[in-house]
Design a protein that fits this description.
Layout lengths: L1 H17 L10 H21 L12 H14 L3 H12 L2 H20 L3 E7 L5 E6 L1 H19 L6 H4 L1 H22 L16 H7 L6 E2 L2 E2 H28 L8 H19 L1 H4 L3 H4 L5 H14 L2 H8 L6 H29 L9 E3 L5 E3 L3 H4 L3 H14 L11 H25 L1 H9 L10
Antiparallel strand pairs: 1-2, 3-4, 5-6
Helix pairs in contact: 2-8, 2-9, 2-14, 5-8, 6-10, 8-14, 10-11, 10-14, 10-15, 11-15, 11-16, 11-18, 16-18, 18-19, 19-20
Bound molecules: NADPH dihydro-nicotinamide-adenine-dinucleotide phosphate.
Length: about 450
């Protein structure tokens, strides 16, 4: 028995050396994360009830919204009755079934469609994960199937997402919660590599931030799978459903507004690009350093598809024609943004893969890693964020200026990227120490050259 106890003790010690306790909190600690957990679903539903035909437009008609709440209150005086009425508004069994079928379809595509296996960055335990990269193939297959279905049965056959919007939100939040709970419980099994930021010992905080770095079932990596497939591909199909609803209302595809086309082209281009460049995901902060918890699961499964598509949903009931000049200018903004985003990300990815075709200058650091100091990465420390922000703005402009709600995405995204820049700055300061100070002196701007 004794040798076994020693062995167990050794492996416990190894485990705690590899997985040190997290000693500082982000997001104002457990209370802050608890608050965000409550607020995120409220915002996702709020963007619907605050901007929809059901509540009288965007912003909503207050008397309509109040009378709808009053109905819930007066007809049932007991709390249980009010709760069940509210639940009745949010829950849609058919939407849940569609959602589960769609999720399962994505898993099956991951398993059966061909795809190259790509190696991730070496992890703290010295291991290298291999990811199956077939998200773009999944997108093409689902796009082909959906197009065939819409051509065969007409655009009205694909408007169900518009009509079951709230039910789909609920389905995605339930899925996010179940997944986060599952991976949290599994993270306590022996031999798991934990995220450096998600091992505080506080259940609420760790559940939110993500305790395990790369939860997986066999070779199925839960985090990267969710980040691209049920997240981005769902967003694309939500947009397509909105365009179908507009086509039905305007009497055919030929009458769909230019504003709807711009949002559709811009967002599907962006999604297609992310899926095509799937291997680049494996070098991002999300994959390398963040755990998979409720923050990421609700972010990718609910927040991305249902808040990034508000503009397309708005254009269903507030149809706008922009004309060639304005449409051209907005598309130009989108593609300039895309060019900056793609070029800068390519420069860094090639460099991180040991290539430097443009012969860019770099700083050699004591950590063994090098930092680019010319090209896009000589202009600011996150030129890719600038390109992303320009694209985001180009997807809101087609909705005009009647409501700030369709500018939610660009506003939130600016806050997210500014916060992300700070998190990355902290991360790089720890990794590169004095070299990071040297780098910051050489490249002083954070995101927008000469401005910020
Ligand atoms: P970055 O692509 O900017 O990556 C930051 C990392 O790059 C650093 O931690 C560092 O890692 C490395 N790095 C920093 N400076 C240099 C340099 N000068 N030369 C070489 N390597 C450098 O950040 P993200 O992972 O946050 O973003 C990736 C993309 O995803 C961006 O285009 C962003 O806009 C997009 N994004 C989109 C979101 C959305 O919701 N649509 C959300 C978040 C991001 P190391 O040195 O360890 O390699």
């Amino acid at each position: 028995m004794a040798p076994l106890r020693t062995k167990q003790k050794d492996s416990k010690e190894e485990h705690s050396v590899l997985n040190p306790r997290t000693t500082s909190y982000e997001f104002s600690g457990p209370w802050g994360t608890f608050f965000i957990m409550l607020v995120v679903p409220i915002i996702i539903y709020g963007l619907y009830f605050g901007c929809s035909e059901e509540t009288g437009g965007c912003p909503p008609n207050l008397s309509l919204a109040i009378s709808s709440i009053a109905t819930i209150g007066t007809q049932s005086v007991d709390v249980a009755g009010i709760t069940s009425k509210l639940w009745g508004k949010l829950w849609d069994a058919e939407a849940m079934l569609y959602y589960l079928a769609w999720y399962l379809f994505c898993v099956i595509c991951w398993a059966v469609l061909p795809g190259e296996y790509v190696e991730g960055r070496p992890m703290r335990n010295g291991q290298v994960k291999r990811y199956k990269a077939n998200a773009f193939q999944t997108f093409l297959l689902s796009l082909a199937l959906a197009s065939a279905y819409i051509i065969q049965f007409g655009p009205d056959s694909f408007t169900f997402v518009y009509h079951k919007w709230v039910g789909f939100i609920t389905a995605s939040i339930i899925m996010a919660f179940i997944q986060a709970g599952f991976v949290y419980v599994m993270s306590f099994r022996p031999g798991k590599l934990l995220a450096l930021g998600g091992n505080t010992g506080n259940h609420v905080y760790d559940f939110f931030i993500g305790r395990e770095l790369n939860p997986s079932i066999g070779s199925f990596d839960i985090k990267s799978f969710n980040e691209l497939r049920p997240s981005l591909i769902t967003w694309a199909f939500i947009d397509i459903s909105m365009a179908c609803e507009q086509a039905v209302r305007r009497g055919g595809w030929g009458n769909v507004t230019d504003s709807m086309w711009i949002v559709l082209i811009g967002q599907i281009w962006y999604i297609g690009d992310a899926l095509w460049n799937e291997p680049a995901l494996f070098t991002t902060m999300d994959i390398i350093s963040d755990g998979f918890g409720y923050m990421l699961s609700v972010g990718v499964l609910s927040w991305i598809p249902f808040t990034f598509s508000v503009q397309a949903r708005y254009l269903v009931f507030r149809q706008r024609e922009l004309g060639h000049l304005v449409s051209g200018m907005i598309l130009l903004m989108h593609f300039v943004g895309y060019w900056i985003f793609r070029e800068s990300n390519n420069e860094k990815n090639e460099f991180r893969n040991g290539k430097n075709p443009k012969n860019l200058k770099f700083l050699t650091t004591n950590s063994g890693s090098k930092l680019l100091i010319s090209g896009w990465w000589g202009l600011s420390r996150h030129p890719n964020y600038l390109g992303d922000l320009l694209m985001a703005l180009s997807w809101s402009l087609p909705t005009g200026f009647e409501t700030p709600i369709t500018y939610f995405y660009i506003t939130y995204f600016t806050i997210l990227l500014v916060h992300r820049e700070r998190r990355d700055d902290d991360h790089c300061a720890k990794k590169y120490r004095d070299d990071w100070k040297k780098y910051k002196a050489l490249v002083p701007y954070k995101i927008v050259p000469y401005v910020y």
